[in-house]
Amino acid sequence: MRLLVSRHLENFLALFEAGNMHTAAQKKGISQPALTKSLQLLEDELDAELFERTHKGLVATETGHILYRHACAIEQEARFAALEIANMRGAMGGRIKIGVGQVLAVSIFPALLADFHRRFPDVEVSAEAGISTGLVQSLLRDNLDLVIAALPQATLPDRFVTLPLLSTDMVIICRTDHPLCREKSITPEALTAFRRVGFLEDREFESRARQCFGERSQSLRPILQTTSLNIMFGLLTTTDYYAIVSDMIVPKAEKEGLAARTMEGGLWTLDVDLICKASLASSKPISAFRKAFSAHTGEAG
User: Fold this and answer.
1) CB–CB of 147/288 below 8 Å?
2) What is the Cα–Cα distance from 155 to 200, expressed in whole angstroms?
3) 19-46: average pLDDT
4) Are residues 162 and 275 in the same domain?
């Protein structure tokens, strides 16, 4: 892949991400003078400084930030080109950076990833779990190649596409002896008597809750927010708190001693999509990942 991306651009990316000449030189396996010369060549070509040299290290200038954005896109396209060309030789290899929703990460994604690796053992995958809004922001900055998560309601730029994978319903989970479990039908009013545990910075939930509950959504504001399902489950098993989550997590929740309940009239449905650049949507890596996903969910169904 190195021949597809300028050596100087690779060095710039290392400098931007390290913010330190010594660290970047070690990462690239070159001397600091060679790295300094490489940076100087780029700055001469652009006729602009890319970094401010401070006592704390290198701080990117506005020009540096602009170049970083484009350099990430170039590096991404080069990796996918290398993946597809390698696949033509019969052995797809390379690297893919994936963002995955937190519930998917602890439900069906591990099995999906294992299946993908059985088919393509030479592809290096890095997977980052998080809230869909944060993952999509990383995708827009080219820090991720694709995201598998509930589609955010915000409109994506035209250069990105969404490829439908599945739909999931939201349910209420709480401990098995929770007062809500004694209700024949859980109403919005019944929920207001208890406090909710939610995911940290889950703005999508807030938006969906307003659509579902109207003014009552204010009473659903979380008493605690976390990025960890283990923390969430631990709290739910020992308190009168409850959570509203995707039904994909129900089997894991039940193993932790929790019960799943539906609300009168239902909550809302989330569409889980694969989100990526339109230019990469028909690439072999994306197609292979979609096939692995379809095969797994088909077997599960």
Assistant:
1) no
2) 22
3) 87
4) yes
From the CB of residue 289, how many other CB atoms can be counted at a distance below 10 Å?
27
Beta bridge partners of 130: 101
Tens digits of residue pLDDT in 72-85: 888 777 777 766 65
Q: With bands split at pLDDT 50, 70 and 90, how would you rate the model's confidence at 293?
A: confident
Domain range for 205 is 168-269
Query: Is there a single domain that holds both residue 113 and residue 255?
Result: no
Split into its structural domains, the chain has a count of 3
Average pLDDT over residues 139-148: 89
Q: Write the CATH number for 45.
A: 1.10.10.10
Phi and psi dihedrals of 153, rounded to 5?
-75, -20
Q: Please give the helix or strand (H or E) that residue 83 lies within, else none.
A: helix 62-88
Q: Within a domain: residue 74? A: no
In a domain, 191, yes or no: yes
* pTM for this prediction: 0.66
Distant-in-sequence, close-in-space partners of 97: CB < 8 Å, separation ≥ 6: 125, 126, 128, 143, 144, 145, 146
Helix (H/G/I), strand (E/B), else coil: 150: strand
- Among 213, 141, 138, residue whose Cα is nearest residue 149: 138
Assess if residue 79 is contained within a domain. no
For the chain, what is the mean pLDDT?
84
Using the structure block, give the residue that is written with the tokens 């990117």.
60
